[in-house]
Predict the 3D structure of the following.
Amino acid sequence: MAMSVFRDGDQYNCSVCLDLMKDPVTIPCGHSYCMSCIEAYWSQDQIGTTRCPQCRHEFPTRPALNKNTMLAEILEDLRTTTSQSSRPTLAFAHRGEVECDFCTGVKLRAVRSCLECRAAYCETHLQPHYDFPALQRHKLIVATRIPMCPRHDRLLEAFCRTDNTCICMSCVVDEHKGHDTVSSAAERDQKQVTLQANKHKFVEKRKEKEKELHELRKATEAHAQSTQESVETTQLACSSLTMSIEKSCLEVIERIRAQEGIYKDRSLDLQEQLELEIAILMGQEELMDKLLQTEDHVYFLQNFESMPSPSGAEELPSQTFKPPVSFSDDVSNMVSEFKAKLEIFCKQELENMFAHFHIKVGDRVRVKSSVSTPKFNWGHIVTHESVGVVKYISEESVIIDFPEHKNWKGLLSEMERVTAPDESGTNPNNLAGRLGDKVRETRLRWFGQSSGPGDIEKRTLEMELPGISAQQREFKVGDRVRVKPSVNSPRHGWGGVTHECVGVVKSLDGETIAVDFPKQPRWRGVISEMEIVS
């Protein structure tokens, strides 16, 4: 019998502190409490009356509190048979968490909210909603502060599509009368479908970016391997040459390494961009997942408009970056040619060999003199003297607009850049020298040797032309340019251009530059605001 009394230890808990009673006292209405708990409760009662915390029975005067000896003995026996360490830890409400509306004294964390009662409950005070049939029909949701209509103090059970806001049923027949209104649940169902579809689009975009990143990494690894093979081949071939040829071999290696460094730098920049875009997409997915998981219709509807939309977001264009053609075959062929030529031709051939790696859209080029017949033939009256502008580059092939033949197709390795004055005898920017212009000559000796029959000299003429700024001498028609990152707002406005846009210079007029961007042809800007894209 005694054991059955101890079986349900919760009946000996103080309803104020929710723990086993200490120094139990029984007040006239029959309820028992810890002596310190009931005294503290009566001391902080704001109404000024003395009443029972459970049955709310009021006493005209504060009753005398005497220890209930029999109950104290029962509690002492219960403590010896029950391990206090096995009792669950009370979940007290911390700052920012929803508190139980029925806890007195220290507030416990609420676990559920009732839409009918408009209150939040901890696990203890929620139990009647599971025990009593009348309360079992109430709608319970995750603990939250239930938003109410500030005008009518009623639940926000409807949604006005006309004003795009949550309203109560009184608002439907009052200030929102005649508007397009539906229940909050119906509106949430409709918008949830839209949000699910938007999330699916973001997932697809993220997967595309991840695929691009994977392919880019594979291409980078393959190019690095090709570069290493080229270096090894070059080193083996150059080991049989004379001292002067060995020096040229070192130059070949340096250039190959330089090409690899440029490629890696571009690849890393693009990888960082793709990783950033993937992180942004994953963050947006997480925001939408949190909103999709909420059970609060009002919270969902109030935050729906702030969710990202794939149609409204300005997406950066997909980047495609392929490595330049393999060095292996070209370098091996050139090294074989070096063996058959004298020292005087070494530097010239090296320059020709690497020239096509620097060719870009907008450059002025011609067929190398060493090419007797191009792979795709000469076409209409194209010759070694013909100079055209690069229109398109795709892996090993190139499309060029010659005056004699538009859209001419050739191999990138068959072409060389034209840096000297063109056929008309003027330089690309029409900056022709005149009699009386200041000219400075610079001489560069290869290998640092003293002047002799075997030396190769390079002369560079630097002209200081009147009326031409240093900025304008830097740019020429056909250069690929973009707005400098340091320029926040161009003098003539952005138009459809951004810092990432790359265009081709069409004309130069004093300090003004005209550029053809993919989305903004004939864009007008200031030369000092632009930079060349290598």
